[in-house]
Every structure is written in structure tokens, then in C-alpha cells.
Amino acid sequence: MNIGIAIKTIRTHFGISQEDLSLKTGISQTSISQIENGLKNPSKRTIKKICDVFQIPEAIVYIIGVDHSDVPESRKKIFDQLFPQIKELAIQIIGNRKSKLIQGNQN
Asked: Domain containing 32: what range?
């Protein structure tokens, strides 16, 4: 599982910098960088703070963070068939949240 890549994917999808995410979450920019680069594992509390900023369910981070190596050999075939659609759905949810946040900021 690569939570760091998931967080970076979400952050960049929303178009905000590590520094902006740091200011919005109270998590240092250095910590965010270390998480995104796989040097540090985020706590559940950290993941919650990040998800709160983006107004997305925490499950989205875990879905995007799933790696092929996380799946047992006996389940890889079904994983390969289903996971691309599941991941795409998670990314669509992010896109929908981004649109709502942008619309909310314009009012």
C-alpha cells in the first residue's frame, strides 16, 4: 500500500501545493513531503486531517493507495479485472468533490 502516492495524487488533482496543504492541515510541509515520498507513514489522524481538507472519505486514500503487491497471488486475477474500475470511480469522486469545493468558494 502506498498511501504517500495516494495523498500526492489527491493533492495534485486538487491543484494545491504541499505548502498549502500544510497550512490547511497544520501538518508540516516537511512531513507531507516525507509522506508523499514514502519516507514516513501517516497516522490515521493525519490521513483524516488531509481528507477533511479535501472533503473526501478516507476510504478514497486507501483505494488509490492499493498496490498490486498488496494482493495475494490467488486474488490477483480478479484484482486485475476489477481494480481499474474501482480506482477510476475513486478518482471520479475526487473530481466531484473538487467541483463542489470550487463552486463553494465562488459563492
From this structure: 3-106
pLDDT tens for residues 75-105? 999 999 999 899 888 888 887 776 565 555 5
Q: Is the dihedral of CA 102, 41, 47, 30 positive or negative?
A: negative
**Domains contained in the chain, number:** 1
Query: Integer distance in angstroms from the first to the last C-alpha of the chain?
Result: 38
In terms of pLDDT, which residue wins out, 41 or 96?
A: 41
Angle, CA of 65, 24 and 64, to the nearest 5°: 10
pTM: 0.82
Q: Say how far residue 40 (Cα) sits from the centre of its chain.
A: 15
For residue 87, which amino acid is it?
Answer: K
CATH classification at residue 62 = 1.10.260.40
Instruction: Classify residue 27 by its DSSP letter.
Output: -
Give yes or no for a contact between 42 and 107, defined as CB atoms under 8 angstroms apart: no
